Amino acid sequence: MTEAALPGLHRGAAVFVLPTVKQDCYGRHFAISELLGLSVLEAMASGTPVVASCLDALPEVLRHGETGFLVTPGDVDELRDHVAQLLEDRALAGRMGRRGREVVLEQFTWEACARRCLRAYEELLSPGAHSGPV
Length: 134
Fold this sequence. Notes:
The protein is mainly alpha-helical. The chain has one domain (3-125): Rossmann fold (3-Layer(aba) Sandwich), CATH 3.40.50.2000. The protein has helices at 6-12, 38-45, 58-61, 76-88, 90-107, 110-125; strands at 16-18, 50-53, 68-71. It has a three-stranded parallel beta sheet, with helices on both faces. Helix 2 (38-45) links the parallel strand 1 and strand 2. Helix 2 (38-45) packs across helix 5. The N and C termini lie far apart (49 Å).
């Protein structure tokens, strides 16, 4: 599989699942499991609903009940139930997938990120933005 094939695979998937954990079944610990959740953003950009662990930055990317579901890390029953819900309710999955794509286009394109960065700089440079040395 090539990286170029990834968007097509995401679009063809019924659901994207990222069951990230802080400790695996072998007892290995992971200080940071998902910095941003780029794979989640890729799936959302393709219009695919997501079920992912409520861990690290994933709650900042995925909106529970709107673009997919956030689950407790390691809770297999909760993970299974939400995946089954999306597989059984295609209308819900379609709505979440469409909304996920909208969120990515609104907030996570390079242009959207650049606008947020420029706004932050403008706020810092505006008179009275801070009262003393930083």
